[in-house]
Design brief:
357 residues; alpha+beta; 2 domains; seven-stranded mixed β-sheet; five-stranded antiparallel β-sheet; 20% strand
Length: 357
């Protein structure tokens, strides 16, 4: 689904989140690769980021028992010993030990560019640009964005796609947070199975941005909008609240999902439809200033509401059916009351159980 995006990491993307034409990491004519690794490791240590060496065996394995360094920072002497005499890659330990360091890891250039484009389409260009200027690097196959946030959370898979075979799903976007680590530039090709290096494209350790909680949630919500496994997960939202309303035959909520339009569900509560493209509609939450998008409906033909704003009655990063949205907006999340109200509005039906008459 991302074939239309340019997969070349050296293409001109400029200030719109596009890749610069050349890396901004240390000039190899001035420093050897070993010296560049040492310099970056010391710069990270000075920024109170925990670092560990990585073996150049193509397996991205730390060369030390790295969990020790989840509790303390390496000393300058340890760093000199690790990187001074041998070719090693460099990894940063994410999470609280590194001041809330977190990495947004894109599996490919294509999914990164799709995410970047969607951030801009939905009105979050300034946030995307701040991240990109702060720390953007090319991995052998994908992209890393590094930033700090508080509190740090555990590693999370944000978007996946079903695939054939025993693996069943392939991760498109994930994080490295508390309990994780991330290999970074200027690690050479020896650390990765592909033999390709990590290359810093913009920013660096000294310019890592710090995000507040709502900015981080927004990034995650936009990333989750690319998840193609959502339909099997989204049902949990409604099923969790409607378990007590299960009845024989078609439920009032099922009929409401089939008959109602999203305009009927959302517009009475101040939501504004901004535009529709390819069957997917873009919505702005009530009282929002400007032109930013707060949610979408019918992504990939799902007929679901996907909310990524943290300033609504909905939970960011979740998808909702029309009935689930109706229950939350009209009945404060009481799904049983919502089902009774719909049944009463419809009037008695031959297939309506006595409990709902």
């Amino acid at each position: 689904m991302f074939s239309r995006y340019n997969k070349n990491p050296t293409s001109q993307l400029g200030s719109q989140g596009r890749f610069p034409t050349s890396p901004v990491s240390t000039n190899p004519s001035l420093l050897t690769h070993r010296q560049a690794i040492m310099r970056t490791a010391l710069e990270a240590r000075q920024a109170e980021i925990s670092v560990v060496p990585v073996l150049p065996d193509g397996r991205k394995r730390p060369a030390v028992r790295w969990r020790v360094y989840q509790r303390r920072l390496a000393t300058p002497r340890e760093i000199a010993r690790w990187f001074g005499n041998e070719e090693r890659g460099l990894a940063l330990i994410t999470g609280a030990i590194s001041g809330g360091l977190e990495a947004l890891d894109f599996d490919s250039r294509a999914i990164y560019q799709a995410w970047n484009e969607r951030m801009r389409q939905w009105g979050y260009e300034a946030l995307a640009d701040r991240l990109i200027r702060g720390y953007l690097e090319a991995t052998p196959h994908g992209i890393h964005l590094l930033y700090r946030c508080c509190p740090a959370e555990k590693n999370q898979k944000l978007a996946s796609v079903p695939v054939d075979g025993p693996q069943r799903v392939r991760t498109l976007i994930e994080t490295r947070g508390e309990g994780g680590l991330v290999v970074v530039a200027p690690s050479g090709g020896g650390v990765h199975p592909s033999g390709k290096p990590y290359v810093l494209l913009a920013g660096g350790i000294s310019s890592l941005p710090t995000l507040v909680a709502w900015e981080r949630q927004l990034l995650f919500a936009v990333a989750r909008s690319f998840d193609q496994t959502t339909p099997s997960l989204v049902l949990n939202v409604e099923q969790r609240h409607t378990r007590t309303a299960l009845v024989q035959g078609e439920r009032p909520g099922d009929r409401y999902n089939r008959r109602a339009s999203w305009e009927e569900v959302l517009e009475p509560h101040g939501w504004k439809r901004l535009s529709t493209r390819g069957g997917e509609s873009y919505w702005q939450r009530p009282d929002k200033q400007g032109s930013g998008v707060s949610a979408t409906t019918n992504y990939q033909g799902s007929d679901l509401l996907y909310v990524f704003s943290t300033s609504t009655v909905f939970e960011a990063g979740r998808a909702y059916s029309k009935f689930a949205a109706y229950a939350i907006l009209e009945h404060g999340g009481d799904f049983r009351a919502a089902a009774h109200a719909l049944a009463a509005r419809e009037g008695p039906r031959d297939d309506t159980p006595d409990a709902l008459r």
